[in-house]
Amino acid sequence: MLTNKQKQFLRSESHHIKPIFQVGKDGVNENMVTQISEALEKRELIKVSILQNCVEDKHVVAEQISAGTEAEVVQIIGNTIILYKESTDHKEIKLP
């Protein structure tokens, strides 16, 4: 689990990042979880955008992705989810 201080740090780090995944009307699927997991391994910190036509609640979507990828949900802002997972090979972010 991330502390509040770590979440605050990650929020500031994620400020300039653009969402690289979008969840649409089909919701979260196995393939998407795999791709997000690979992206987290490379980047550690990513944003996922939830489109207007997504029928599921953003908190449910965040929970599904986080459970599938074993990542931490840093924050949900509007329709954007910020995810963090410590990389095993590409560790770049130093948490406070």
TrEMBL record:
This is Ribosome assembly RNA-binding protein YhbY. PANTHER family: RNA-BINDING PROTEIN YHBY. The lineage of its organism: Bacteria, Bacillati, Bacillota, Bacilli, Bacillales. SMART domains: CRS1_YhbY. Keywords: RNA-binding. It holds the Pfam family CRS1_YhbY. The keyword RNA-binding applies. It comes from Oceanobacillus aidingensis. Residues 1-96 form the CRM domain.
